[in-house]
From TrEMBL:
The gene is Lmbrd2. Residues 582-617, 635-644 have a biased composition (Basic and acidic residues). The keyword Transmembrane applies. It is a multi-pass membrane protein. The chain crosses the membrane at residues 6-21, 33-52, 103-126, 146-165, 177-201, 378-396, 425-446, 466-489, 523-542. This is LMBD2 protein. Residues 618-634 have a biased composition (Polar residues).
Length: 669
């Protein structure tokens, strides 16, 4: 049973990381190495979060055994009994044998550091490269990362020279390793506090606002207006890039040495553009190097990079627009059904995806109405209050965890109370909830932030390779300082508690931070207090107001620009709603027409075939009669009339397709 808990969590975390990566990435279109590297980075970071509570419970048990072994004791089965006080050290159900956790943490930590500082930055440049060969992409990636790697090597080399020259320093390899770990954790802690201060306020507030239907609908209208602008810009950018591709494709003929590069670019273009360019290309015309100036391979690589980016952006905006439309239609249905007397949820449009029969059986329109119109708002309010309580506890503990006598950190108080009774299940649950909430606050901010179009995690398989790799880098850099901060909040870190007790296996691989006393006693303790200022700034939306002043439209209720964008988005949603209603009405009329006249058309078609056979036989037997031509002309007229009846379809009125010239309209013809 001791290794079963570790094995189950390893398997569970793997499928959790795989599920999230499938939601944001695209397994079919993206490179396998990008998927594997991102999956490994996410998996290792999530694994640290889930395994650390087991390390805490095992450490508490080992401390108890050390206390028992230092005094007269007697062993009894699965626990040790202290002779004087009859104290019992029960072995936790998730106990991990000695020697496993240090090796496990060492492998996980150094693998994640190798990913975040060496492999993932290189793969980012490789993924964005427009090269046409593996060698070309590797060369481009090395050139782009030369400054990145050279800066770190220069700093590390200067530090080694300083240590070697200064006689006061006598550092060994373990101490140098600890200094490197401290530098990486310091950088991660700096970013961690920024993201944590935002998430501690924004997550409870977003759930509280989720209970306000009017607020969500207005924000959806606002998003629709902004997304339509981005969608139009992406379409225009794609048209410009495709025009450049067309010119290059027409200038470089089939027997040109760079034609293979052009064919590679054409394969990345949308299908309709490929067909259009294929029709206009003359493959039988040879190229003349003396008469025309042809683009170089470097310019084609740049064009290839632009094509990949523009196609990805265009596809992402199209998918996000459809998702936003469904969300807006659903919120409008909720607002409409709140005053329903039948208490049954009625959808304006039927779902385009087939629903699960089991869900459809239990989640009836009545159940949906009670959940969406009555229970869901209250559920979100209660959840927001619980999350806000956790946020207050985290802020208080971040400001007071350095105090060991008395113990002011609430998380440390909870763990010490459970440690006295050796309630390992309570210890593991308290540790898991604490670090899970901290992780949600930090990781959700990573998923929410957007740096223009440079970094953006979009769901429904619309995230590009560069953003996936960048998120893996952030996770690997944020998780180690997050875990150290958690151990400090619970006073499981000897550097914080100032107790000569056995450290956790995770802390042991980090080394003693006493090598850098100003980091251990200064930065690690007092810098997390900055989270209070960041929470206040987030509560009053200072960052949102600054972005709004700089020209980046943000959703603010008291802004005139926000009101204009809401009105614009409402009109866009109304227009799309009328368009979809006309489409559904047309499909319903065609379906009714087929159901009503389908059998009649079949019988008419059979009678037409029978009439043709009779006419053909009659015309063959009376070929020499003078009236045969009239018989044939009458039969042709009859067949034309029957074909017209068979091809008749109900008219679907579309205001956008009305033409003033009746000769050019379908009905006129």
């Amino acid at each position: 049973m001791s290794g079963a808990a570790l094995g189950l969590e390893i398997v569970f975390v793997f499928f959790l990381a795989l599920f999230l990566l499938h939601r944001y990435g695209d397994f079919k279109k993206q490179h396998r190495l990008v998927i594997i590297a991102t999956l490994l980075a996410w998996y290792l970071c999530f694994l640290i979060v889930f395994i650390l509570p087991l390390d805490v419970s095992t450490t508490i048990y080992n401390r108890c055994k050390l206390a028992v072994n230092s005094s007269p004791a007697e062993s009894n089965g699965s626990y040790v009994t202290l002779a004087p006080s009859k104290q019992k050290c029960f072995k936790p159900w998730s106990y991990i044998p000695d020697g496993i956790m240090p090796i496990f943490w060492r492998v996980v930590y150094w693998t994640s550091q190798f990913l975040t500082w060496i492999l993932l930055p290189f793969m980012q440049s490789y993924a964005r490269s427009g090269g046409f060969s593996i060698t070309g992409k590797i060369k481009t990636a090395l050139i782009e990362n030369a400054i990145y790697y050279g800066t770190y090597l220069l700093i590390f080399g200067a530090f080694l020279i300083y240590v070697a020259v200064n006689p006061n320093f006598n550092l060994q390899w373990n101490q140098l390793q600890t200094i490197g770990i401290a530098a990486a954790n310091t950088w991660g802690l700096f970013l961690l506090v920024l993201l944590l201060g935002y998430g501690l306020v924004e997550i409870p507030r977003s759930h509280w606002n989720g209970a306000k239907r009017g607020y969500l609908l207005m924000k959806t209208y606002f998003k629709a207006a902004k997304l339509m602008t981005e969608k139009a810009d992406a379409e225009e950018n794609l048209e410009d890039i495709m025009e450049e591709v067309r010119k290059v494709s027409e200038s470089i003929k089939y027997n040109h040495p760079l034609r293979k590069c052009v064919d590679t670019i054409l394969k990345k273009c949308p299908t309709e553009y490929q067909e259009r360019m294929g029709r206009n290309m003359d493959d039988y015309e040879d190229f003349d190097e003396r008469q025309n100036s042809y683009p170089s391979e470097k310019s084609l690589a740049k064009l290839h990079k632009q094509v990949i980016y523009s196609v990805q952006r265009h596809r992402r905006t199209q998918v996000q627009w459809q998702i936003l439309l469904e969300q807006a239609f659903y919120l409008e249905d909720v607002a409409k059904n709140e005053s329903s007397a039948t208490r049954q949820f009625v959808h304006t449009f039927h779902s385009q995806e087939p629903e699960n029969k089991i869900i459809q059986y239990f989640y009836t329109p009545t159940v949906e109405w009670y959940w969406e119109c009555l229970l869901r708002p209250w559920f979100y309010r209660v959840l927001a209050v619980v999350l806000a309580t956790f946020s207050v506890i985290v802020v208080w503990s971040e400001c007071t965890f350095f105090s060991t006598n008395p113990v002011l950190s609430l998380f440390a108080v909870f763990i010490q109370l459970a440690e006295k009774t050796y309630n390992y299940i309570y210890i593991e649950m308290a540790c898991f909830l604490t670090i899970f909430f901290l992780s949600i606050c930090v990781y959700s901010t990573v998923f929410r932030i957007r740096v223009f179009n440079y970094y953006y995690l979009a769901s429904h398989h619309q995230t590009d390779a560069y953003s996936l790799l960048f998120s893996g880098m952030l996770f690997c850099r944020l998780t180690p300082p997050l875990c150290l901060n958690f151990l400090g909040l619970t006073h499981m870190d000897a550097t914080i508690s100032h107790k000569n007790t056995q450290p956790t296996a995770y802390t042991s691989i980090m080394g003693s931070m006493r090598v850098l006393s100003f980091v251990a006693d200064g930065f690690y303790i007092y810098y997390p207090m900055l989270v209070v200022i960041l929470c206040i700034a987030t509560y009053f939306s200072l960052g949102t107001r600054c972005l709004n002043l700089l020209g980046f439209q943000q959703f603010m209720g008291d802004s005139e620009m926000t009101s204009d964008l809401i009105d614009e988005g409402k009109e866009l949603i109304r227009r799309e709603k009328r368009k979809r209603q006309r489409q559904e009405e047309g499909e319903n009329r065609r379906r009714e027409w087929k159901e009503r006249y389908g059998n009649r058309d079949d019988s008419t078609r059979s009678r037409a075939v029978h009439t043709d056979q009779k006419e053909s036989s009659f015309s063959e037997t009376n070929a020499n009669r003078p009236l045969s031509k009239y018989t044939r002309s009458n039969g042709r007229t009859e067949r034309d009339r029957i074909e017209l009846l068979q091809d008749a379809e109900p008219l679907d009125f579309n205001a956008d397709s009305v033409n003033d010239d009746p000769l050019e309209s379908d009905s006129g013809r």
